[in-house]
Amino acid sequence: MTGKTHTSCGLLVGALTIEYYQTDLFTSITIMTLAVISSLLSDICHTQSKVGRRFKVLSFLVRILFGHRTFTHSLLFLSIISILLYFIQTPEYYLVSIILGLLSHVILDMLTPRGVKLLYPIPLTIKFPLVFKTGGLVDLSLAGALSIGALYVLFKSFFNNLFLSF
Ligand SMILES: [Zn+2]
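^ thats the input. predicted complex w/ zinc ion below
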């Protein structure tokens, strides 16, 4: 999937987390930022990706060590990040937005013909029975739909709070 689709999905994850935990403005902005970053983070193994271009050296190292769509797209990576965040006592709403952001990335990539090495280091490619081309019509429509979903959830919780304060 394109960076746009991953970003939109990150926005939706952030919006849903905010809606669920009813966080204040500062926390909400942090949640949105973390969700978007983590929804793109897995592609650090891809030097041409949004995050890869920003962190060229790290991206290069990850690619040399693990290859593309392997370690950073696996349950192992997700577990390690979850354990680390848990140990540094990350507040639950931040933890949830990061993990769901990472998970959303893996799920979206499982919808592409290339799939992901979900069970890395077991070299098994996992993908959904139905896959879509990256940058194709479905990918682009998905980016649009996810962004609209995110905006809807954000506005809904904003207006709810507004009415509650009267
Ligand atoms: Zn990816």
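Residues 1-159 form one domain.
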